[in-house]
Structures are given as structure tokens and as C-alpha cells.
Amino acid sequence: MSIFSVKAAVITGAASGIGLALARHAAAQGMKVVLADIDEPALLAATEQLNLPADRMLAVRTDVRHAAEIKALADAAYDRFNGVHLLFNNAGVALARTTWEHTVADWEWILQVNLWSVVHGISEFLPRMQAQGGPAHIVNTASVAGLVSNPGMAAYNVSKHGVVTLSETLSLELQMTQSPIGVSLLCPAWVPTGIGNSERNRPSDLAQTRPIEGFTAQLNRRIGKAIASGQLTADDMAVETFNAIAEKRFYVIPHNYMFPVIETRMQEILSQQTPTLPK
């Protein structure tokens, strides 16, 4: 029997991409699954694709920007399954602009979804996990963009660097308190998912942005090509993540070709060099 069997997993951003792959993998391991996503039609399609019995499935339309909606998600998960053993703070969006072309709305949208949703997830779920007793695990989805700094993605980079240090800090605190709750940090590179089309779920109250033109258009083409050319799939990310949970491993960096790029950045920091363009 799988070590994950009969336990409950909550996944944000679960209707597509890595989130849906995590949900499929959790379901295959015999878990109860709570799917959360802002895209209600996609969320319905995901539940139909998983085709789990009602006693193993819960779908909650959730705008992860808001603490109240994350609280409602936690309330629903604990009401249905009386415990959560895996929390995947996975929801994420991306935007390609030069730093000086990011609007305030761009920054608010990216930071609210990518960083604040993780803050809200930890705040709402961790105390309940501690109260329920026994082992549990939190997986925060960051990105290699949280370990290096690619041009054209300032808000995205900032949000993912935030998730990295938040996760590292949380892991150290849980170790200090000898908690049975573990933490893993998923840092994918380019994965061919719908994240390049994140604008489809951009809320109307944060719609103000600038046209994609000039150098920003070049950056968008470059990033779009990189996403499309990704060799590892969302399912690969899910397999590697579940392996890391079983191994109680913190860093999950499936794209090992990024190791030299990460190492170069670390060396530049230690030698106090001006950053160079990632290769």
C-alpha cells in the first residue's frame, strides 16, 4: 500500500498544468483529493477527468489572492475529510514585461497569486495540521526563477524568490520545533503548461497593464518559445515531487541542466560580480 493511501491532499491551481498532474498522481496513490482553482469550468473538467467517487473528491472554486477564500478552502477540506496530510501551494501566474513597464496592477496580481497565496495557505492550513497530529507535508511551488533572475520577468522573479525564502525559513522553524510536518520546495524550469497564457484568468480589478510591443514583445516571444520547448512534462514534475515527499527532501529541482546556471549565480554573489545573462 502507498504511504499516501487514504490520506487527503489539497492542491491549489489544480485545474491545469502541474496542479492537475499533482492531483492525478495523488488520486493514483489512493488519496482523497481537494481541488482548488479560480477557473470554474476548468475545475469541473478536472473533476470529471479524475472521475473519483464522491467520498474521495472535493472541488472548491478559490481565488487564492484572498485570505478569506483560502480559509473557506481549509474549512471545506477539514469538514469533508477531517484532516489534510499534503498541502500543495501550487497556484501561479506569469507575466513577461520589462521591469519599467510593469504596472502596479501587474505587481499586485503576480504577487497576490504567486506569493501571498502561499502565505495564506501556510497560515490557514499549518496550525490545523499541527493540531491534527502526526506527519504531514507542505509543498510550495516556486520556480528556478526563484533561484536565478531571468530578464523580462521582474514581478514573477520577485514572487518566486519570495516563495523560496519563505519555504526555507518555514523548514528551519519546523526543524527547530521537532515538528513531524515536512516542507518541500518545487522549482521547475520550463514546463509546457498553460502558464504562458495566465492572462485568461486575470481578474478585472487588476486588469491595467501595458501593450506587448517593442522589447517586451521580444521577451514574450523568447519566453513563449522556452516554455513550448520544455522537455519535462507536468506529470514529470508530479512524479519528482511525490518522490521528494517520500524521501523527506526539501529542494525539488527536476531540471538538472539548470544546476550550472544556479551555481554561476551563487559564485557571482560570493565574488560580488555584476550579474551575467543566464545561458
Question: What does this protein look like?
Answer:
With 279 residues, the protein is α/β, with parallel strands linked by helices. The protein is built from eight helices and seven strands. A seven-stranded parallel beta sheet has the order 3-2-1-4-5-6-7, sandwiched between helices. It is globular, with a radius of gyration of 18 Å. The termini are far apart.
Task: Put the structure in a nutshell.
This protein is of the alpha/beta class and 279 residues long. It has helices at 17-28, 40-50, 67-81, 104-132, 154-176, 214-228, 234-247, 259-270; strands at residues 8-12, 32-37, 57-61, 86-89, 136-141, 181-186, 251-252. Helix 1 crosses helix 7 (234-247) and helix 4 runs parallel beside helix 5 (154-176).
Question: What's the helix and strand layout?
Answer:
Blueprint lengths: L7 E5 L4 H12 L3 E6 L2 H11 L6 E5 L5 H15 L4 E4 L14 H29 L3 E6 L12 H23 L4 E6 L27 H15 L5 H14 L3 E2 L6 H12 L9
Parallel strand pairs: 1-2, 1-4, 2-3, 4-5, 5-6, 6-7
Average pLDDT confidence is: 94
Give me the Rg, rounded: 18 Å
Report the portion of residues in β strands: 5-15%
What string gives the helices and strands in order?
A: EHEHEHEHEHEHHEH
Sheet with most strands: strand arrangement: 3-2-1-4-5-6-7
Quaternary structure of the protein? single chain
The global form is globular
- Beta strands, count: 7
Total helical elements: 8
Instruction: Quote the distance from N terminus to C terminus.
Output: 44 Å
Structural class: alpha/beta
Q: Which stretches are low in confidence, meaning pLDDT under 50 for 5 or more residues running?
A: none
Largest sheet: 7 strands, parallel
